[in-house]
Amino acid sequence: MSNLDREPVPSVCGGRGFVVAEPVRELLSPRRVRLGGSTEVRRLLPNLGRRMVGAWAFVDHYGPDDIADESGMQVPPHPHMGLQTVSWLHEGEVLHRDSTGSLQTIRPRELGLMTSGRAISHSEESPRAHARFLHGAQLWVALPDSDRHVDPHFEHHGALPTVTAPGLTATVILGSLDGAASPGTTYSPIVGADLTLAHGTETRLPLNPDFEYAVLSMSGEAHVDDVPLVPGSMLYLGCGRTELPLRAASDAGLMLLGGEPFEEELVMFWNFIGRNQDEITQAREDWMTGSRFGEVKGYDGARLDAPELPAVPLKPRGRVR
To answer: Please, which residues have CB within 8 angstroms of residue 155's CB and are 6 or more apart in sequence?
Structure first.
């Protein structure tokens, strides 16, 4: 998915200087962004208060939207560099095309994982014949320096492992949780899991104390470590936890995101992740001149132009503002 903000601000993310080394309860509120078509997203990362959770560098939550009489998601071809995109749906379907030739319809609780590596372009759209509702999350994972120039590729995993307890089903999207490991390719210690809680459930989820974590609320009413979450909000939890108390006041859906704090400082601008402003400038030029990022074939429409770079030089700001 693209960041369609026409005036994105470059920022430096990563580094351990602002990692919270103990359990905290830091509630993050979203910023609303229009993506095209009828889709509006709630952007949780990067946030005014926090830019990363482990290697997770970008989190959008959207829906549930009634698109029965709408075109739904329509994101034209656009580039990515230095990251992985994770497409995750609770309702609806998204048709993915990319410059490696991949063509895949992603459906609820299936993993669409695109590794941009050095350069890729892709589009995302609701199929012409689509379900009434669209509801999901789009996330980016930053690639470490040792792997950020890998060949671009796309993975689709329709069957994912689960961890169960009374009233809880946890689908492991990336990484591993309580002994269950996702087949999705990862490049740093990370975990992503979809949590389904039945009304009245009280349970504790095992965690890795070396990871930092956050929980995104997708639907319903749930309390995470006694903090009530409404859909479209996210709770940052810090590090040092061995378990996480969960309580559902209704049927609820959550996403657990975590990982080892990301040591490297990253420059993020539009849909690019690099290590300095020169890399971002070159990536923008390559996209605008039609080199390096390839071509998305089969999309009915024009590709996106990159926004202008700001006149002011990039100033490092760390993991939080």
So the answer is: 111, 112, 113, 114, 115, 184, 185
